[in-house]
Specification:
Distance between the termini: 32 Å
Order of helices and strands: HHHHHHHHH
Strand content: under 5%
Helix content: over 70%
Largest sheet: none
Structural class: mainly alpha
Oligomer: single chain
Shape: globular
Length: 263
Amino acid sequence: MDIQLIGLVILTLIIHLIDTLAYSVRLNSVKSGKFALSISLFNIFVLLSRTANMFQAPLIGGLIGASIAAGQDSLPDIRLVIFSSTAGTLLGIVCIPTFLRIFSKAVDKLEITGSVPSIVAESLKINTIKRIVKSTTSPRRRMLFSIRYKQIPKRFLLLNTIITAIYTIGVLSAYYAASFVPEEHRLAASASSGMINGVATVLLTLLVDPQSAIITDQALRQKRPYGDVKALVILLIGTKLLGTLIAQIFVLPAAKIIAGFYS
């Protein structure tokens, strides 16, 4: 396997791992009542995810550009990258119980020290790493069957599925569309990724985030039970996983639709 493809797969996995863990931060913020502190600390992980995103697009462009030059179809490689987004989501699901346990302690420490860098430095010590390894735990199946799923609106879950699928293939489909257009339009086709992800961001901000924020805020003010936030997080993660799977179906049609504008 090409080194460039391996790097792209690893970066995509990391991005979706962090995005999955981001959903679980709601649980800690509601349970501890330290919403602002939780978000402040988690911004470190968001920064890592955004940094990985910066390197993702050039790697995708290089991968597809090399395939075009060699006269090869890069779709199998693209599907592998999409699969890594599914793998990253699944890994995030497995890591959530351990992550929440560690994250809760880190938030408490942040409240005392008031310094994010000191927490990062502490986490890199050998003794801390050993404690993290010892505190690992796996998800409990019974948690999935004791939650009030009916209290969560289904329409915005469908939207989250579709938006996740768009995010997953936005850059990939735009760059892959360059394979179907004349050479003079390839840069324009690949640049469409920003527009596609922009539309997804608008939909997420207007239709999904407000509803999930309402549920979280009501739980913080004890107007609805903590179990509703658990249900929200589980369903959002479930629809995210489903979205990465649907992305495998969308990637080729999306690339051809983009190419149709430049052919």
